[in-house]
Design a protein that fits this description.
The structure holds two protein chains of two kinds.
Chain A lengths: L16 H5 L6 H21 L17 H24 E2 L27
Chain B lengths: L6 H11 L7 H20 L3 E8 L2 E8 L1 H20 L6 H19 L3 H20 L4 H32 L12 H13 L8 H5 L5 H22 L5 H19 L3 H22 L2 H32 L15 H14 L6 H15 L3 H27 L13 H19 L2 H6 L11 H23 L10 E2 L4 H44 L11 H20 L1
Antiparallel strand pairs in B: 1-2
The chains are: A mainly alpha, B mainly alpha.
């Protein structure tokens, strides 16, 4: 990694238009707002289950919030299982080298590393 | 007789002429126009068997045109076009020609009406594609390409064995629907399974795809595996074992994708997983399921290419695709970020994006046929797709912590390719009916019902909630510089280790045997030496008198015997 690319202070004038608009996300308060919006949406979607008649094949689908619960617990279980799996499977990046690209740098001549300051 | 111009010839001709066109915009334009003409050719081809001729007593069919082959021909051409726009600035002649040849052989394979032509194109895709890995031109890429080539060519050899057996049994080389049972059909099935990355046969893919060049990975993601999906749909639709293979495929790679650091490998695992959905659809084998499989292949070629393009653009600008090195790029590469999010929304089956209108056909079909557990597994696998490709890839590349990288936005050609692909993902999601019209069977399916939209949104937002909760509580596994052992460990580490120990064992046994025989030989020689050597009792010089005496005794004995 070249050090000259590490330029944490960003001059907004050098950002593309959309990037300047997205600076809104730099404010942690706004990120918190997005997360609150997610909570509200989730609550709303469970409420929505009571407002229409579900066309279902299985009895289990008729439980209000079945899909919500399935989604939440399945993804949580999946992530936790993967994390446990990593304890056994993780190896150093150089494990297969030199017969692997994992620990190699990508050839510079095939890149075009330009920064916004160029 | 050749009555129609086969589209693959167009690609072969293009690849042959390309090196003579000035490198730069003219050559890039010429390359990109080949798939455009190919779309036109395929669109105009009347249904039926064309391009039939006899070669050494075998009837070959170059063009079997029906709805199944046509839709694959079209999406392959379209994806080749988008990939070549993305690769507009690649000036490497090998990559340019091999991309065209690769697309051409894949298109040739989907139109092949007999097993011989299928075999030739099958191996063609293997050989053309490996150059996209070697084009990285590093030692690691060389070895990875070798491993990839061995597996790919191996798949072709198994196919060859299968077709020879098939010919022996049936006397026909036609490539038609088969029933699994005989060694011939099993061999063909396994050959397809290798390219389709069935569980435990899948390692070539996460090994090789992230090793290719920025543009090579995009091209690779399109053809080989979807060709295998086509071949399975043609040959083994309704084969029940595929349901269980597919369900395993849909879950197995998910865990790896969650803990993998290289985002292009994360996407490869997710590609593997999406193939699982299609394989289930082929196994279910009803009209709805097969339509779902093909629609999903079509949609997934696009969103998967889009995701590979966006991470490719990041790699092109920053030199890395590793989650542990990236983050915070949304300010400087906002368009790439938006396209990546569109790809992520499509693979996660957000309503109004392409995955929503294609994957649900497969889920509905498995439900309708009573495969409830498989349905539950696929729902779980959808959660996986959302977690690793829907959230992880865009989040760790463009958001998460600020990596300090301030790369410029991707170049115009990459943005154009991503923009076109993203528009297609949205267009299919918003209005799927033109895609449905291309499918082999009539589609009586309405994706946008209240139930479907609400249940899908519930799933998606609660996946997201789980992600947020696990991130906030620190349970979500951090991105670490590492590799994770997969089944390829068996042939990259365990196999060689076994061979090494067997070799030392053989060496030891051989050494002991040779040593023992040498000692035996030495002992024999020494004994002879002792008896007959210069000092040996049998080699002593005896006095002439005793010799004469002994001859007289011998003579006496002989005479005595004679007279008796």
């Amino acid at each position: 990694m070249s050090t000259e690319m590490k330029t944490p202070e960003t001059d907004p004038a050098k950002l593309p238009w959309l990037g300047r608009k997205l600076l809104w996300l730099d404010n942690m308060k706004n990120v918190a707002r997005i997360i609150y919006a997610l909570f509200v949406l989730c609550a709303g979607l469970i409420a929505a289950d009571f407002m229409y008649s579900k066309k279902s094949y299985l009895a289990i689908e008729d439980i209000p919030g079945f899909y919500a619960a399935y989604g939440f617990f399945m993804s949580a279980a999946l992530i936790i299982f993967a994390r446990v799996m990593r304890v056994f499977l993780k190896r150093d990046e150089t494990y297969y080298s030199p017969k692997d690209v994992e620990s190699e740098a990508y050839p510079e001549d095939q890149l075009s590393r330009e920064t916004i300051n160029d | 007789m050749i009555d129609l111009f086969p589209p693959f010839l167009l690609f072969v001709a293009g690849a042959a002429l390309l090196p003579f066109i000035p490198n730069g915009h003219p050559r890039a334009l010429a390359a990109a126009s080949v798939p455009v003409i190919s779309v036109y050719l395929i669109w105009m081809m009347p249904e039926g068997m064309h391009g039939q001729f006899t070669l050494v007593g075998q009837e070959l069919t170059l063009l079997r045109v029906d709805k199944l082959s046509t839709i694959f021909g079209l999406i392959f051409s379209l994806a080749a076009f988008l990939g070549l726009i993305f690769a507009w600035y690649v000036r490497d002649t090998i990559q340019q020609t091999m991309s065209l040849l690769y697309a051409g052989t894949a298109i040739g394979a989907v139109f092949a009406g007999d097993l011989i032509s299928l075999f030739i194109f099958w191996e063609g895709t293997a050989i053309a594609s490996v150059f996209l890995i070697w084009a990285r031109r590093t030692e690691g890429a060389y070895w990875t390409g070798m491993r990839y080539l061995i597996v790919q060519v191996g798949s072709g050899v198994i196919l060859l064995a299968g077709m020879v057996l098939q010919y022996n049994e049936t006397g026909s080389m036609a490539f038609e629907a088969m029933t699994l049972g005989s060694p011939a059909t099993w061999a063909i099935f396994i050959a397809f399974g290798v390219k389709c990355a069935f569980p435990l046969l899948h390692n070539w893919m996460p090994d090789a795809y992230p090793a290719a060049t920025v543009t090579g990975t995009v091209i690779l993601s399109v053809f080989t595996t979807k060709l295998a999906i086509y071949a399975l749909a043609r040959g083994f639709a309704g084969t029940e074992i595929l349901i269980y293979i597919g369900a395993t495929m849909a879950i197995f790679p998910v865990f790896y994708a969650v803990i993998e650091n290289d985002l292009r490998r994360v996407l490869t695992y997710s590609l593997n997983q999406q193939l699982g959905f299609m394989v289930v659809g082929i196994g279910v084998g009803t009209e709805l399921a097969l339509n779902g499989t093909i629609a999903h292949a079509f949609a997934s070629i696009l969103y998967q290419a889009l995701l590979f393009m966006s991470i490719g653009a990041v790699l092109f600008r920053t030199g890395t695709a590793k989650a542990s090195e990236l983050g915070g790029l949304y300010k400087t590469m906002p368009l790439t970020m938006v396209f990546c999010v569109i790809g992520a929304a499509s693979i996660s089956s957000f309503p109004l994006f392409s995955g929503f209108v294609s994957k649900s056909l497969i889920l509905s079909a498995s439900m309708q046929e009573g495969y409830y557990i498989v349905w539950g597994i696929l729902l779980f696998a959808s959660a996986g797709a959302f977690i690793h490709s829907g959230i992880k890839v865009p989040f760790f590349a463009f958001f998460a912590q600020d990596s300090g990288l301030r790369p410029k936005e991707a170049p115009w050609n990459m943005l154009l390719a991503m923009g076109l692909t993203a528009s297609l993902c949205i267009a299919i999601g918003v209005y799927p009916y033109p895609l449905y019209a291309l499918l082999p069977y009539d589609v009586d399916y309405v994706p946008y019902t209240t139930t479907h939209v609400v249940t899908q949104l519930q799933l998606l937002f609660f996946y997201m909630l789980a992600f947020v909760v696990l991130m906030k509580t620190g349970i979500y596994p951090p991105e670490l510089k590492s590799v994770n052992l997969d089944f390829d460990w068996t042939y990259r580490k365990l196999g060689p280790a076994i061979i090494r120990s067997v070799r030392s064992l053989i060496q030891a046994v051989w050494g002991a045997l040779i040593g023992a025989s040498l000692r035996g030989l030495n002992f024999g020689v020494a004994t002879l030496e002792r008896a007959h050597g210069t000092e040996g009792p049998l080699a002593r010089a005896w006095p002439t008198g005793s010799m004469v005496l002994w001859i007289a005794v011998l003579l006496g004995g002989v005479l005595l015997l004679n007279y008796m």
